[in-house]
Amino acid sequence: MARPTSADAGTGELVPVPTNGPVLDGELVDEAEYQRSRARRLAEAARSRLPAQWQDPTTAKQAALVMTGRAAVMPLRYPGAVLRGTAVVSRAWWQWVRVADYYAAAKSTDTLAVRWQDIATVRRRRTWLSLGGTLAAVTGEGVWWLCQGGVAVWLTSGIVTAVTAIAGRHKDGAGGRKTVMGGARTLAFTMGGDSLVEAFRAAGAIGKAEGLLFVQRPANDRLGWTVVIDLPPSRKASDVITKREALASALAVDEVRLILERVRGDEGHAGRLSLWVGHSDPYAAAPVVSPLATAESWDLWNPAPFGATARGDKVALPVVWTAVLIGAIPRMGKTFVMRLPLTAAALDPYVRLIVADGKGGKDHRPFEQVAHRFIRDARTDSARRLIAVLEEAAADVEDRFSRLADMDDELCPESKVTPQITRDPAHGMPLTVIGIDEIQNYLENDTPLDPDEPKGKKVGQRICDLLTYIAKTGPAAGYSLVLATQKPDAKVIPDKLRGQLGTRFALKTMTYQASETILGAGTYKAGMDASKLLQSHKGVGLLLGADGESALSSGEALTVRTHLLHIAQIRSACERGRAARDAAGTLTGDAIGDTALGVLPPEVAALIDEAAGGEVDEPAAEVVDAVLVDDELPEVLGLLVDVIEDDEQGLVAVADLAARIGWEPKRFGEALTMAGVARPQARRQRVNGSANAVPVVTFEAIRAAVVARTSAA
């Protein structure tokens, strides 16, 4: 390929551009277009410095009407304001002369008799000062009138009446006046300084006597309003983010239109907050077609195009070094979302793809053209084949680690695969992506793994053990998981597996417990709740990274509207991926009819069993999951059955029961309510000699709820 060139500024000749620098794209414009674009930028910068209500034509007109209306009634209201102001000024002067504050303080501390002489002295002094000041003012006014005529009188009278009118004006909320917004409340008015401060106070984000410091004034663009603020000292941006719903109510917008983000890095701190409010629902527009639909190829070492935020910022999904969990209620687009990273993997000829479709439809059939292993459905024979495929993958993971340990430090500096290693067929370590849709259909398979041992390990348990091992050890060897499910609860995906899935994407869920089960314990308390998404927001979800390996934040979830790929576009992409694999000689496995599977060595089987029985990173005690799973008991009742003794009767403190199963009392109480446990009429009582009344429940109510659930089943 010819080296890029550019025109030399002095000679007009083409000279080579150094290839080790960045290559930038640009557009050649003439002088007139440049001047027009420069004028537009200057106009936008100037407009952003105006008050918020003047930045938008509609609200500017509204503000002008309000100001015109107030100017029209000013002559009628002015005399009344002067009279009120005269009373206010006179009252303030009299309190000053009488030393009212000093007098009240002395009286409240029972020292009035001791300080009476001092108070009387100050009163006399201020009385004489007032008389002297009045005499001097009258004398000066008289001299000025003799020298200048009536101009002095009119000027002085105007100043005095203006001051008293200002002092006597009604404040918003005071008796005799109503707050007037000139019509329905609009964002431009709400984003103004005083209104925004009042909204933060109303939401409980700051105190009644606290204010905000505007680092960046409210600015309006084609999508919404942006402002950067500093909170009062000791207030944290992360705490304000948890009050997003209350703040949206105070701003009179739906919470999907409100984005709160901490400003990080050198330009931010723990109390600096970026606030964006969209003009309309940012997720109501038609989805954007993924760039993968037309891409000739894709390097999976780069994050795959995934979607965009409400503000239009592009979002990419890392696939290497992590495992992805996608969860949602049915028909919210999780299969569409899952196919995005799989399509990126299909377009990379140096990626080995393994796909299992637990749904059994046609959604993933295009990947058969490129997949090293492909499983069409979740029948028992297919589930057993998935076990064999995962055992083959687990053996490959262990073999890779052995070979990586023998490589020199220059080729393999960190005991991990590198792009050079994965793209060299001689090493036999291509990036491998395992995608499983509707994984619950495999994990819930209770067919005995060994027909001769009906009470032994089940097929679903074996699949879970294998996935846990691959998720825990596979990323460093070049293995990634992409799992999707419509039942993301602790019983379907145990914590030993779920804790290894470092990237989470939650589309619409029915409850905050289900959202927290996908995103991780504590995310609901931090303000991340996928149950708040609307049913109409298909393909919109919360994206969170938690493994520290990807560029995704582990503390703040991004709300992302994912790209769209129709099945015809995926099929076309897989055709391009197959052609690229043919050219690179990397087409393997089922795609070329080679269905023979490897054998799992005994030592690897022992490692899998050890990993399956090891510690988990995300204990189930931190996840409240009171959603029914088919006909089974809610998790909270199932745990209580194991810890309540048969002879226990009467009242018990909610906190005591929560401690028995390791849950937080607040969420434990919410889970009891969702599980249908009746509470006593007096929900707070003294039990076990407690000094104060505490939330209680009865053992009988818990047993009745268990019986009701099991009878219904």
What is the strand and helix layout of this fold?
Layout: E1 5-7, E2 14-16, H1 31-48, H2 57-97, H3 100-108, H4 112-148, H5 150-167, H6 187-190, H7 193-202, E3 213-220, E4 224-230, H8 237-242, H9 244-251, E5 258-262, E6 272-278, E7 304-308, E8 314-317, E9 323-327, H10 334-346, E10 351-357, E11 373-375, H11 380-406, H12 419-423, E12 431-437, H13 440-443, H14 459-473, E13 479-485, H15 495-498, E14 503-506, H16 512-519, E15 540-545, E16 558-562, H17 567-584, H18 602-612, H19 635-643, E17 651-653, H20 654-661, H21 665-674, E18 684-685, E19 694-698, H22 699-712
Parallel strand pairs: 9-13, 9-14, 10-11, 10-12, 12-13
Antiparallel strand pairs: 1-2, 3-4, 4-6, 5-6, 7-8, 7-16, 14-15, 15-16, 17-19, 18-19
Helix pairs in contact: 2-5, 3-4, 4-5, 7-9, 11-14, 14-18, 19-22, 20-21
Q: What this model shows, in words?
A:
With 713 residues, the chain is an alpha/beta fold. The chain has 22 helices and 19 strands. The protein has a ten-stranded mixed sheet, with helices on both faces. A four-stranded antiparallel sheet has the order 3-4-6-5. A hairpin with a 3-residue loop joins β3 and β4. α2 crosses α5 (150-167), α3 (100-108) packs antiparallel against α4 (112-148) and α4 runs antiparallel to α5. The chain is elongated, with a radius of gyration of 35 Å. The two termini are 70 Å apart.
